[in-house]
Design goal:
Length: 270
């Protein structure tokens, strides 16, 4: 479900190949090849009809172009684009909103780590965090997740959705959510998503923030691609930056005013 981005990105518009080229800087020949190889996924079209693209395909194109500039071949690009496209597909087809999908991705990660023997604490707001219990089963992991993420929509129904996903699909949702995050437009200059991307020992795509702890662990990459995601996406939609920032600030101020009213004038850090 993409409704959470509708006021920042043109989620209901479609774009021609020329528009994709003009906004991303990817040449027409490369775009044609990527379409043929499935790197980019245009909307279904009748024979001989011009291909059209949804807005998030421009984001995929920008990321792939960054990796291509660093020497990634078509096979490598296909692995990474498949991961992003899978996450975007799951988001578009899901009945859950963005916050719930974020919670779903976190549960998928916790269940994956638990299955590999990592200790997972069961969150309980009424208990001292120092005394949190350790999960002994998947049910314990889910219970702790519902306690911690209920405000984002964590529920038994959402947990069942997560159980239908593979660990890689859970990660793909996380990556796709970042790829279409409005913060790329609203926090330009003060916030930036920067990915380190690599293929793991199984040849699967991995994306992590440049500050992620895993980069320093034994599971981290020996070599990786650096992708300045926010900068790339802000360039695509440079004509929307002013309106996006203005809308975000308007909504932030309204939220703060409502918060102060509920708290009797108490201040809150932005």
């Amino acid at each position: 479900m993409l409704d959470g981005q509708k006021d920042y990105y043109p989620i209901r518009d479609t774009f021609s190949r020329q528009q994709v080229r003009d906004r991303t800087g990817v040449s027409d020949d490369v775009l044609a090849f990527w379409i043929k190889q499935g790197i980019l996924q245009p909307l279904p079209a009748a024979p001989r009809a011009h291909r059209r693209f949804q807005f998030e395909q421009l984001h995929v194109a920008a990321v792939m172009n960054s990796m291509r500039a660093l020497g990634a071949n078509i096979g490598v690009l296909r692995v990474f684009s498949d991961a992003l496209q899978e996450g975007l597909k799951l988001i578009r087809e899901s009945e859950f909103d963005s916050d719930a999908l974020g919670a779903a991705a976190r549960l998928a990660n916790s269940l994956d780590r638990f299955s590999k023997g990592t200790e997972i604490k069961i969150y309980d707001a009424a208990r001292d965090p120092e005394n949190d219990e350790l999960a002994k089963s998947e049910a314990d992991v889910i219970r702790g997740w519902i306690n911690s993420d209920s405000q984002d929509g964590a529920s038994i129904e959402l947990a069942e959705f997560v159980r239908s996903l593979s660990p890689q699909q859970g990660r793909a949702i996380s990556w796709a959510r970042i790829l279409i995050d409005h913060a790329h437009l609203t926090h330009t200059g003060t916030y930036g998503s920067r990915w380190i991307a690599w293929l793991d020992e199984n040849g699967a795509a991995q994306f992590e923030d440049t500050n992620a702890w895993v980069l320093e662990s034994g599971d981290g990459p020996d070599a990786a691609f650096y992708i300045p995601v926010s900068k790339l996406i802000a360039r695509i939609w440079s004509d929307r930056l002013v309106s996006a920032k203005s809308l975000y600030e308007e909504r932030r101020q309204k939220f703060l005013e409502e918060y102060r009213a509920r708290r009797g004038g108490e201040t809150m850090d932005p």
